[in-house]
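Bit of a strange request maybe. I'm writing a small parser for structure token strings and I need a real example to test against, not something I typed by hand. Could someone generate the tokens for this chain?
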Amino acid sequence: MTASDAFREFEHAGWSTESVTVAYHRHMGELTRGCIPELLRAIGLKPGEKVLDVASGPGYVAAAARERGADPVGVDFSAAQVRMAERTFPGIRFVEGDAEALPFGDGEFDVVLNAFGMPHLPHPDKAAREAHRVLKAGGRFAYASWCEAAKCLGFSMIYDAIRAHGSLDVGLPQGPNFFSCGDPHYAAEMLRLAGFANVSTTEVPLFWRVSSPDAIMYVLANGSVRAAAVLGRQTPENLARISQYVRERVSGFAEDGAYAVPTPALVVAARKDRRGAAAP
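Reply from user aminoacidic:
Good idea to test on real output. This should exercise your parser:
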């Protein structure tokens, strides 16, 4: 088994766990939905267009596209996510499938969207090439991903805490940098190599709003995969120190009786050549 296969199986097993998908939906849905208006604006979604929502998760993007008169289909590698999306947004078609090998023919869609799925893929560049393949000539692709670690404190403070008081080397399958796809230069080059043109990026200033300084640790321990696994393999003593570190960092973002931690996203949009040229 290759390293990328091991990482894919690790992510798939985690996101196929019902309790993880429920916790993600319950505790992170509001945060992730904050990027959707910019995601749809960036590609200029029009009524009647056929939209593919890749890594559709609970189905938020597909539902927003339907509200604007588009014809969406969602695809996710997790059967648990597909079931949740079907329950939450009946009437939209959701199917199981791999973002790096989409179960659709060439040129089927006007628009392909991906909200926060890229950091969970072994090869996000393959997902970009697949998006290019299933788009019609002149079709548009946009994805949202968390910004670089220096900006995206809601997630990066957890890894800062682990580096300071524990270990990131806990025997997990090697995956890509969680924050790479939120780097504008990385994103532009990845989409250029996938065959896209007219790449644009927009930073969306999201805030992770929680009621307690302990909430972010709780959510990531129960509603994520990679971060939860790293936290779960710390010693009890180190985990206590990690929790205290995060508690103190979150406390610095107190606002009106709650806490608002900067967790911005980058929306990246591009267009397939109108001649329908294949990716190089």
